C-alpha cells in the first residue's frame, strides 16, 4: 500500500517530540500493535558507538488520543532539520549539494550504505522484518548515520502474546517481485530493497531497474521492470538505459557481484538473493580501499578503477554530480531537472509518507494549534498533555531511552567479523 496513512506534526511548547496522527481510524489490530510496541524496549535503541546520536529506529514513546479516548496517533522523539536529510535527498545531485559538506562524495555515500546494511542486519538479528524499506522512510545525519522512520510497517511477533503483526505497506520501486505478487513481508524482501538502495547510493541515484526494457511499452515503470525481472545491471543488452546512467562497473567487483546476484537470479528466487550481512561485509572491506581524485573535490572511488569515474562522467555529460559547477562553468541543474523517480525530497527532512502536495512542509513548520476543530491528548508517564491548549493536565516528561552500547551489538559485530565502531 502506498503512503499517506498519517501526517507528522511538531508540538508548540514541546520541542523534543513529534506526533504522528493517522488520517483514518485505527483498526483494533493496529491499535494492539501500537500498544504492544509501547511496552517493548526499542530493539534498536542502542547504537554501536560511544557518542550520543539519533536512534536507529523512530520508536513510539506515547499514544495520542482524542477526548473520547480513541487512539489517533503516537509521539516519537524529535530529530531532523538542517542536520538530517531524507535518504531520497542524497540520491539527487541538488540534494547532495545542499546537504553534504564540500569534499564529501562517494566515500560518504558508501558509508551511508554500510550503516543502512548494519541496521537491516541488526533488525533481522532481532527477528524484525522492515517490510517497507525505501529512500522515503530513512533519514541520514551529517555523519552518515541513518534512522528508520516508518516503524509501524515493521513485521514482528509479540514475544509475550505470540500475536503476529504483519507489515501491510510497501513502496513502488523497492518492493520485491514476490511481494508484488501478493506475498508477505520477509527478510528476503528487505534484502531486495536494501540492494536497490545501496546500488542507488553507489551510483549517485541511478535505479537498477530504470530504463525501458526491449519489447515492453514505452510507459513501463520501474515497478514493471522489477516484476519482469529485467535490470540493465544484469541484462544490459535487453534494456535501453537513460543516457546519463552511471556505468555499473563503478561498483567495486564484490559489490557489483552482489548487485547482479540480487537483480538477476535473486530477483526470481529469494533464496538466491544476497542478504544484508553479505552486503555489510563487502561494504566493510571496501571502506579501507577508497581512492581520492586529485582533480576535483568530492571525487572518491574504488581501488579497482584506474581513473576517476566521476571526472569521466563530468567530461562526457557536462555535469559533475558531486560539485556545484560543471566543467564548462555553467550553473547546476535545478531540483526539478535533477529529481529521479520515486524521490520525495531533495534536502531537509520531509514527511516520508505524505503524498498530499499542499501539505508537504517540514515538520517544524507544521504545528498543532488550538484552531484545530478537535482536541487530542498525548498520554505520557504520569499524566496527560493537551496538545491543542485548553485545560492543562499535570504530566511527567515522556519516557526517553538512553543510547548506550548494548551487548547484542558486540555479539552481532563479532559474528560478522566487524568492529563495534561504525564510523565513516
Outline the secondary-structure elements:
Layout: E1 6-11, E2 14-22, H1 28-39, E3 60-65, E4 71-77, E5 84-86, H2 93-99, H3 106-125, E6 138-141, E7 146-148, E8 156-157, E9 164-165, H4 177-180, H5 187-202, E10 212-213, H6 222-228, E11 239-240, H7 253-263, H8 265-268, H9 276-286, E12 291-292, E13 300-301, H10 309-317, H11 335-338, E14 367-368, E15 377-380, E16 383-386, H12 407-416
Helix pairs in contact: 3-5, 3-9, 5-7
Protein described:
- The chain has 424 residues and is an alpha+beta fold.
- The protein is 27% helix and 14% strand.
- It is built from 12 helices and 16 strands.
- The chain has helices at 28-39, 93-99, 106-125, 177-180, 187-202, 222-228, 253-263, 265-268, 276-286, 309-317, 335-338, 407-416, and strands at residues 6-11, 14-22, 60-65, 71-77, 84-86, 138-141, 146-148, 156-157, 164-165, 212-213, 239-240, 291-292, 300-301, 367-368, 377-380, 383-386.
- The protein has a 7-stranded mixed β-sheet, with helices on one face. A 3-stranded antiparallel β-sheet has the order 5-6-7.
- β8 and β9 form a beta hairpin.
- The longest helix has 20 residues, at 106-125.
- The model is unreliable at 45-51, 327-410 and 419-424 (pLDDT under 50).
